[in-house]
């Protein structure tokens, strides 16, 4: 690790989040260093997707803090009270992270190129030609150089998800959040998406991943975080987490996930 | 038939003027109504609950009131309040308010039909709310709302005939005046009816064509 990597890129401290009366995150602490690949595993309802959504400020949270690249995000203080930031500030902070969703969420009225270009034009304020070149470049990198003008309905699930990855990565985010990105795909399309992720991980992107693909998690991650009931129950390098020494609950989860 | 054609020839300019006024009133009402409807529809979906209330009331009142009553209200109420609106202005106002409520409601429906993942994806790349609206949500909502919007246009053209009740010289009133001179009641009413039908068929065809072009993605 270099010196620059000493400071975490993302630091989550005591994060608490409730939906009504149900507390889904009960004080989560997690730090991610630059270029680190961290994968969150755990059964559904453990709070892993909610954690990711909090980091991208798609969810409000009631306690704790999230610090991204030295900046506390989502909330500020006004008159001694914790306040959600204004829309423009939230938007600026969201643009620091990229997110890829389980259900792709491509914009159906725009072509593959248009999907990738929208953020470059409106958020990064790039000139049209520059944005088009960069977008085409990224679509090439995810293997869709020949699909630039197709709209999402003309693409397979795997292709749509690769467009979504290009859309997130082209923005050059400091941190990329991947939320169960292969869960909605037919089995034969999973690998084409995962191989794209392997490549961007190898290129040094900082990734925070939620996945049920245990083999992929083991292979691509620097660190595995096991969440249970809104808390981090265990964390460590893949060899340790997937190795013999582990808690009974983790062992049970891994057994149920077919690992 | 010859007698009718002769009378039609005599009455051609008043009828043509009336026809143009019908088109003009309808276009003005749909343009104004669309502007009002855009504000109403967006507010109904995104405004805080309390701020939404006046729009809910507006939509319910407009949709629950007969168009003719709206037209009479727009004609008489401003006069009582000391505002002087011409009959045409009052009529356009009434039709625009009527259209605004309907268009607002159909835009609300379209916006709410967009999957929440769309807004989240837009947020995730850092779009501000106005950008999200302009580049992600409205383009999708407008596609969905287009067929019923055309329908509202058809309703307005038909509804504009009610303006004859407050003395606006649109197609129906002009037709009645012509009938008053030549007593060819059936012929000229049928003629006016065909003129309305023609415009609406053209509008409908345009709507279908656009709908087909946009496809059902």
From TrEMBL, chain A:
<dbReference type="InterPro" id="IPR017871">
    <property type="entry name" value="ABC_transporter-like_CS"/>
</dbReference>
<comment type="similarity">
    <text>Belongs to the ABC transporter superfamily.</text>
</comment>
<feature type="domain" description="ABC transporter">
    <location>
        <begin position="10"/>
        <end position="254"/>
    </location>
</feature>
<keyword id="KW-0547">Nucleotide-binding</keyword>
<dbReference type="InterPro" id="IPR027417">
    <property type="entry name" value="P-loop_NTPase"/>
</dbReference>
<dbReference type="GO" id="GO:0005886">
    <property type="term" value="C:plasma membrane"/>
</dbReference>
<keyword id="KW-1003">Cell membrane</keyword>
<keyword id="KW-0813">Transport</keyword>
<dbReference type="GO" id="GO:0005524">
    <property type="term" value="F:ATP binding"/>
</dbReference>
<protein>
    <submittedName>
        <fullName>Polar amino acid transport system ATP-binding protein</fullName>
    </submittedName>
</protein>
<keyword id="KW-0029">Amino-acid transport</keyword>
<dbReference type="InterPro" id="IPR030679">
    <property type="entry name" value="ABC_ATPase_HisP-typ"/>
</dbReference>
<dbReference type="InterPro" id="IPR050086">
    <property type="entry name" value="MetN_ABC_transporter-like"/>
</dbReference>
<keyword id="KW-0067">ATP-binding</keyword>
<dbReference type="InterPro" id="IPR003439">
    <property type="entry name" value="ABC_transporter-like_ATP-bd"/>
</dbReference>
<keyword id="KW-0472">Membrane</keyword>
<dbReference type="GO" id="GO:0015424">
    <property type="term" value="F:ABC-type amino acid transporter activity"/>
</dbReference>
<dbReference type="Pfam" id="PF00005">
    <property type="entry name" value="ABC_tran"/>
</dbReference>
<dbReference type="GO" id="GO:0016887">
    <property type="term" value="F:ATP hydrolysis activity"/>
</dbReference>
<dbReference type="InterPro" id="IPR003593">
    <property type="entry name" value="AAA+_ATPase"/>
</dbReference>
Automatic annotation (TrEMBL), chain B:
<dbReference type="GO" id="GO:0043190">
    <property type="term" value="C:ATP-binding cassette (ABC) transporter complex"/>
</dbReference>
<feature type="domain" description="ABC transmembrane type-1">
    <location>
        <begin position="19"/>
        <end position="207"/>
    </location>
</feature>
<keyword id="KW-0029">Amino-acid transport</keyword>
<feature type="transmembrane region" description="Helical">
    <location>
        <begin position="20"/>
        <end position="46"/>
    </location>
</feature>
<keyword id="KW-0813">Transport</keyword>
<keyword id="KW-1003">Cell membrane</keyword>
<comment type="similarity">
    <text>Belongs to the binding-protein-dependent transport system permease family. HisMQ subfamily.</text>
</comment>
<keyword id="KW-0472">Membrane</keyword>
<feature type="transmembrane region" description="Helical">
    <location>
        <begin position="67"/>
        <end position="85"/>
    </location>
</feature>
<dbReference type="Pfam" id="PF00528">
    <property type="entry name" value="BPD_transp_1"/>
</dbReference>
<dbReference type="GO" id="GO:0006865">
    <property type="term" value="P:amino acid transport"/>
</dbReference>
<dbReference type="InterPro" id="IPR043429">
    <property type="entry name" value="ArtM/GltK/GlnP/TcyL/YhdX-like"/>
</dbReference>
<dbReference type="InterPro" id="IPR035906">
    <property type="entry name" value="MetI-like_sf"/>
</dbReference>
<feature type="transmembrane region" description="Helical">
    <location>
        <begin position="185"/>
        <end position="203"/>
    </location>
</feature>
<keyword id="KW-0812">Transmembrane</keyword>
<dbReference type="InterPro" id="IPR010065">
    <property type="entry name" value="AA_ABC_transptr_permease_3TM"/>
</dbReference>
<keyword id="KW-1133">Transmembrane helix</keyword>
<protein>
    <submittedName>
        <fullName>Polar amino acid transport system permease protein</fullName>
    </submittedName>
</protein>
<dbReference type="InterPro" id="IPR000515">
    <property type="entry name" value="MetI-like"/>
</dbReference>
<dbReference type="GO" id="GO:0022857">
    <property type="term" value="F:transmembrane transporter activity"/>
</dbReference>
């Amino acid at each position: 690790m270099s010196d620059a990597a000493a400071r975490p890129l993302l630091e989550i401290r005591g994060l608490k989040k409730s939906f009504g009366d149900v507390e889904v995150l009960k004080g989560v602490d997690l730090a991610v260093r630059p270029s680190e690949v961290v994968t969150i595993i755990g059964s559904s309802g453990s709070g892993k997707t909610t954690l990711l959504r909090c980091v991208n400020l798609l969810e409000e949270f009631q306690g704790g803090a999230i610090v991204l690249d030295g900046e506390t995000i989502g909330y500020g203080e006004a008159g001694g009270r914790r306040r959600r930031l204004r829309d423009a500030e939230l938007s600026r902070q969201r643009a620091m992270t990229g997110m890829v969703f389980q259900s792709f969420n491509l914009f159906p009225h725009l072509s593959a190129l248009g999907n990738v270009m929208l953020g470059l034009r409106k958020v990064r304020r790039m000139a049209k030609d520059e944005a088009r070149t960069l977008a085409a470049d990224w679509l090439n990198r995810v293997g869709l150089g020949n699909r630039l003008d197709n709209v999402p309905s003309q693409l397979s699930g795997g292709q749509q998800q690769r467009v979504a990855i290009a859309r997130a990565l082209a923005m050059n985010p400091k941190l990329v959040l991947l939320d169960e990105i292969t869960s909605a795909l037919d089995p034969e399309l999973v690998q084409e998406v995962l191989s794209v992720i392997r490549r961007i991980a190898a290129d040094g992107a900082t990734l925070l991943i939620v996945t049920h693909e245990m083999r992929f998690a083991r292979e691509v991650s620097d660190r595995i975080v096991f969440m249970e009931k809104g808390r981090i129950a265990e964390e460590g390098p893949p060899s340790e987490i997937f190795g013999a020494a582990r808690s009974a609950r983790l062992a049970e989860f891994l057994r149920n996930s077919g690992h | 038939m010859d007698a009718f054609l002769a009378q039609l020839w005599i009455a051609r300019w008043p009828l043509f003027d009336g026809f143009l006024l019908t088109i003009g009133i309808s276009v003005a009402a749909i343009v104004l109504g669309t502007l009002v409807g855009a504000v109403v529809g967006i507010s109904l979906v995104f405004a805080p609950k309390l701020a939404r209330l006046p729009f809910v009331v507006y939509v319910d009142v407009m949709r629950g009131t007969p168009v003719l009553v709206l037209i009479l209200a727009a004609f008489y109420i401003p006069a009582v309040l000391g505002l002087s609106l011409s009959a045409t202005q009052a009529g356009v106002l009434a039709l625009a308010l009527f259209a605004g409520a309907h268009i607002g409601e159909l835009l609300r429906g379209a916006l709410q039909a967009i999957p929440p993942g769309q807004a989240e994806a837009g947020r995730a790349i850092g779009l501000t709310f106005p950008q999200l609206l302009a580049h992600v949500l409205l383009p999708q909502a407008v596609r969905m709302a287009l067929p019923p919007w055309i329908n509202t246009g058809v309703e307005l053209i038909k509804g504009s005939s009610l303006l004859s009740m407050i003395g606006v010289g649109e197609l129906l009133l002009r037709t009645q005046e012509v009938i008053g001179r030549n007593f060819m009641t059936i012929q000229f009413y049928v003629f006016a009816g065909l003129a309305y039908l023609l415009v609406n068929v053209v509008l409908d065809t345009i709507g279908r064509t656009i709908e087909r072009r946009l496809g059902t993605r």
